[in-house]
Design brief:
Strand order of the largest sheet: 1-2
Number of strands: 2
Order of helices and strands: HHHHHHHHHHHHHHHHEEHHH
Distance between the termini: 50 Å
Number of domains: 3
Largest sheet: 2 strands, antiparallel
Helix content: 40-55%
Shape: globular
């Protein structure tokens, strides 16, 4: 897809006169040219804001505003471009188009120097909640970028999964290795080739992926509204399995590997429980490699039952992953300890009464001085607002934290904590409190998980 002559002329002028940019980081707006071109195609199907070209959304504010059309805030141009492209692709039933729009929203924008973070969009709210859930990658040399970019990629994987795309494509938004702070050339470790249709960051192998396969599987665990027409499995890019089977297979494999190493009780607790939700409906079907999900997972560990202890652990882990067992119908759910009942007991579900209580108290103590800037970062559990039939987790304040419901609290807590600094005027103590709340709720189920998160949050 050819970009507009105006856009290319502007970019050329900027590159030709670097002195005007005052130590500007060398341009990289064409590094992901494959995504930029695809989004530009979708954008032009219906472009009411007259955005000149998708590439303008990746430029700095001074250059980007030149092609922003009716978008008055250059810092929101990337979001507006992605939002319109997503809307157009959704209307056409184009899963690949929606996926590309999501990836585009998460791409890193140009900034003034190596290590300088880009400004978040605050003046415009995205129409599509899938786009609203995302933010752009930050310069990898900027403070806290590694952890933040991983969170962004995890959220991107979840959003791609909700529209029926392959969540492994979240790594397409990954950026470069960190440059050197103070580099007077502003070069960083980037590339910018408009004629490389595959994206020079891919061709030159400069992309540093944010997520491993196991991290992608963890990120999409609990995502229920997964489309049925994804064509590639996470664990095998050439497979013709549907996405639900692929996610289940990868979850099982990752869990089985841990189970095989740690054996019996721990294997079941940390293995099958993590993947049970996704695998329940699809374990007996043919997965990406032509073998059953159980066989694929068991090849690496506990699920195959090669060791007597591992098999026993898997059985207990499966019980732990069952919704009813987690609610207390099985005395071995979540804790694997037949001497403790799991029903309504936050500490027992965590497997360590004293540790869970200590973690919650410590997190609450850290949150004592937290300032959330008037935002409500709590999470509620029950009948969700998005039409889901079963009880699920969702942000209490959906106006600020616009996200669909999820069966796993980690999906919501990770989103809320990653968006906190952008959506609200918070201090460092509030961000720390949110991270501690995530840790306090980890592994818990239902209302117990929401209570643990909210208590540790201190709101």
């Amino acid at each position: 897809m050819k970009h507009s002559v105006f856009a290319l002329a502007l970019i050329g002028a900027v590159a030709a006169r670097p002195a005007l940019m005052k130590k500007r980081e060398v341009p990289q707006e064409h590094a992901h040219e494959n995504i930029v071109a695809a989004v530009n195609t979708a954008l032009q199907l219906n472009n009411p804001d007259n955005i000149q070209d998708a590439v303008f959304g990746l430029l700095g504010a001074a250059a980007g505003i030149k092609g922003a059309g009716k978008i008055a805030d250059a810092d929101c141009l990337q979001q507006a471009t992605a939002d319109q492209a997503f809307t157009n692709a959704k209307a056409a039933g184009d899963v690949a188009g929606m996926t590309n729009a999501l990836i585009f929203r998460a791409l890193e924008r140009n900034t003034g120097s190596v290590g300088l973070a880009s400004v978040p969009c605050k003046s415009i709210k995205a129409v599509n909640p899938e786009i609203a859930a995302l933010q752009q990658h930050q310069d990898p040399a900027s403070a806290g970028a590694a952890a933040l970019n991983k969170k962004i990629a995890s959220e991107l994987a979840r959003q791609i999964a909700t529209v029926g795309g392959d969540p492994a494509l979240a790594n397409e938004a990954s950026t470069f290795a960190p440059g050197d702070i103070g580099d007077k050339t502003g070069a960083g470790k980037t590339c910018d080739t408009a004629t490389d249709k595959a994206g020079c960051i891919n061709t030159l192998k400069l992309r540093v992926d944010d997520l491993t396969k196991a991290e992608i599987a963890t990120a999409v665990a609990g995502v229920s509204q997964v489309g049925s027409n994804a064509t590639s499995a996470i664990a095998n890019g050439t497979a013709n399995a549907n996405l639900g089977q692929a996610c289940a297979n990868l979850n099982g494999a990752a869990a089985g590997k841990k189970g095989g190493k740690k054996g019996g009780k721990k294997g079941g607790k940390k293995g099958a429980a993590a993947g049970n939700t996704q695998t329940a409906a699809g374990n007996a079907t043919q997965a990406a490699t032509g073998k059953s999900n159980q066989a694929a997972a068991g090849k690496k560990g506990a699920a195959a039952g090669k060791a007597k202890g591992a098999a026993g652990g898997g059985k207990k882990g499966a019980a732990a992953g069952n919704t009813q067992a987690a609610a207390g119908n099985s005395t071995q759910a979540a804790t694997g300890n037949s001497n403790q009942a799991a029903a309504g007991n936050t500490q027992a579900a965590a497997g360590n009464t004293q540790a869970a209580a200590g973690n919650t108290q410590a997190a609450a103590g850290n949150a004592a001085a937290a300032d959330f800037g008037g935002c409500d970062a709590t999470i509620k559990f029950g009948t969700p607002s998005d039409g889901r039939k079963e009880d699920a987790f969702e942000p209490t304040d959906l106006a600020t934290f616009n996200h669909g419901s999820a069966l796993n609290i980690a999906v919501i807590s990770d989103f809320v904590c990653s968006q906190l600094a952008n959506k609200c005027t918070v201090n460092a103590a509030a961000e720390t409190a949110c991270d501690n709340a995530e840790a306090a709720s980890k592994g818990l189920k239902g209302q117990a998980a929401a209570d643990a998160f909210n208590s540790a949050l201190g709101q």
